[in-house]
Amino acid sequence: MSKPIFILNGPNLNLLGTREPNLYGSTTLADVAKNCAARGKALGLKTDLRQTNSEAQMVDWIHEAIKKADGIIINAAALTHTSVAVLDALKNFKGPIVELHITNPHQRESFRHFSYVTFAATAMMSGFGAEGYPLAVEGMALLLKKHEAK
Length: 150
Ligand code: CA2
What we know:
Helices cover 39% and strands 16% of the residues. The chain is α/β, with parallel strands linked by helices. Helix 4 (84-90) links the parallel strand 3 and strand 4 (97-101). Helix 2 (29-43) packs parallel to helix 5 (132-149) and helix 3 (55-68) packs parallel to helix 4. The chain is globular, with a radius of gyration of 14 Å. Bound molecules: ligand CA2. Ligand CA2 binds at residues 12-13, 15-16, 19-20, 24, 75, 77-78, 80, 101-103, 105, 112.
């Protein structure tokens, strides 16, 4: 039986849709969860979207994913640029990992140009706004097919 796709979100993404709409848009994380569940259902995938402001919680969820998820979509937010702990945890996950960003970090400050997550990611997507989440679910469906065929 197939396991869900974990969609993990890091610090401050609980504010999505409520602050800085010029940068991050007006879709809330609850809307994102619904959109991903609907897109996943159409593709035969279950999704489990979570958000934390804590690095330790993020590491624990990645460990949980090792046993309980077929794939990880991760917007680690600021932890993308700072966390070797998140990278080390991701390296133990055997399935596909999609690194996701709402904005295009390469168009922003130089400290956002470096990503630890990239070293463990199978694929990365950025700059599609909150619409990037359901697009990442579609991308994950493709990656899972390739992974299963191996
Ligand atoms: O573009 C992205 O998705 C980011 O991962 C967002 C992070 C940022 O640190 C990364 O460089 C790029 C910040 C997430 C903050 O989320 C907010 C959402 C709405 C309002 C305020 C913050």
